[in-house]
Amino acid sequence: MTMQDSTQDSTVDQTSQQTFDSLSPINGDVVGTHPVHSAEDVSAAVLRAHEEAAWWSALSFDERAEQLLTWKGVITRRMAQLAEVMHQETGKPHGDALLEATLAIDHLDWAAKNADKVLKRRKVPSGLLMANQAATVEYKPLGVVGVIGPWNYPVFTPMGSIAYALAAGNAVVFKPSEYTPGVGEWLARTFHEAVGRPVLSVVTGLGETGAALCHAGADKIAFTGSTATGKRVMAACAEHLTPVVIEAGGKDAVIIDHDADIEAAADAVLWGACANAGQTCTGVERVYVHEKVYDAFVAEIVKQAETLRADDSADSPLGPITMPKQLDVIRSHIDDALARGGRALVGGAGAVGDRFVQPTILVDVPEDSLAVCEETFGPTVTIARVGTVEEAVRRTNATAYGLGSTVFSKARGMEIAERIRSGMTAVNGVITFAGVPSLPFGGVGDSGFGRIHGPDGLKEFTYAKSIARQRFKPVMPLTSFKRTAKHEQQLVQLMTMLHGRGTTLPKLGKPVKGRGKKA
Prior knowledge:
By secondary structure, this protein is α/β, with parallel strands linked by helices. The protein folds into two domains: about 1-245, Aldehyde Dehydrogenase, Chain A, domain 1 (3-Layer(aba) Sandwich); about 250-435, 3-Layer(aba) Sandwich (Aldehyde Dehydrogenase, Chain A, domain 2), CATH 3.40.309. The chain has helices at about 40-60, 60-75, 80-90, 95-120, 155-165, 180-195, 205-215, 225-240, 260-275, 295-305, 325-340, 370-375, 390-395, 415-420, 455-460, 485-500, and strands spanning about 1-5, 20-25, 30-35, 120-125, 135-140, 145-150, 170-175, 200, 220-225, 245, 250-255, 285-290, 345, 360-365, 380-385, 405-410, 425, 450, 460-470. The protein has a seven-stranded mixed beta sheet with strand order 13-14-15-12-11-16-17, with helices on both faces. The chain has a six-stranded mixed beta sheet with strand order 8-7-6-9-10-18, sandwiched between helices. A three-stranded antiparallel beta sheet has the order 1-2-3, with no helix packed on it. Helix 8 links the parallel strand 9 and strand 10.
């Protein structure tokens, strides 16, 4: 860290003069210098955000949508600029950065245009017992949402919370990763240019700044990162009963059935495992291949992988490992797999360099090895032979994680997908669910809980407001001390008439089992 007197181009004032440097993972050069916002700075940012939330939430859905779509236009016109900031801070190729930006733009557009339909007040049935009531429900903004973002997808991932929280009527305080603070500042700055008010603000710093956000009075925290850090975020937020949405790690698997398109499956697995240098929460880390096509699949993916190389050249399809300490994790997983009888068909023991990791394909790896059980977060993948799809599903589900998954099958894709314990599954594609704005994104188990994207993502940053309004006086005074024994007898008769007989399923016309029997 350095000490200097320079000011920050940000929406948050700074009481401390402490700063930190953002470094290029390609060559170690300083990309930018940013303030370390203190707990006092963060509290002030959240307090200011509450003031902005009052203005923002008072706008109509159409008015908010207009503001957000204006911001969308600014981002779109400056997409190349945003991609360059991402490239400098993460090292990812420009093409990957552009793809990330386009996906974020598409989600911003969807959230802005669909918030009204998903969240506005609507009538719901009141039931025969409460027929005198008019019942409605709507989803109201929480107030201020704190977003703690990751470094691997510093635009797409946090925008899955930011865009949906803003569209729902909340103000947002964004704490980007210390590896990508410039991206966070870019987003906040362009929002302020488009809207004219800091409804979206940014605080930068290290882990202490993120911890301070958990204690600063936000109405919800959206976190993306490791499972271990997610647990610490939950513990901090629990002190204030601050709700959280957690998108944590994954150990995503691919199942390849005997009738799969082998060339397409190999291409998808290789991209899913190695794109962004393997630093993808929903990236491919395990593959289970039916024995009938195992040899053909392995031969195809090895042929394709041998053409990939990670280096510092401008046209390299793979960038560096952004977080230096992850190199040790990747190395330990490869070494453990090889020491326990696994074989590297591509890459292997010498794949991990000082900044770059070469694609590595491992076979014959024990199921209890690090490379199969723990998140590697590098351009590596294990491939295992299975006798049946049932075995593939069982081994896929034998993990504490449950984020994404993939199935390649011409005839049984949907059937297999439904049996996988994961929040999301792609059939005959890879990570395609992330690009569909109307689909919720999130996991189960150690992969976290809560959802971003889609209608669920909008509702995630709201609370349900239910209203029952009396339209006329009730026939029976059920909620009154004027209720008599006669009223209670009438109530029993009514309930017996309504619910005492076997219930018929809608459209099917069949009695529900176990009901309708005489006592």
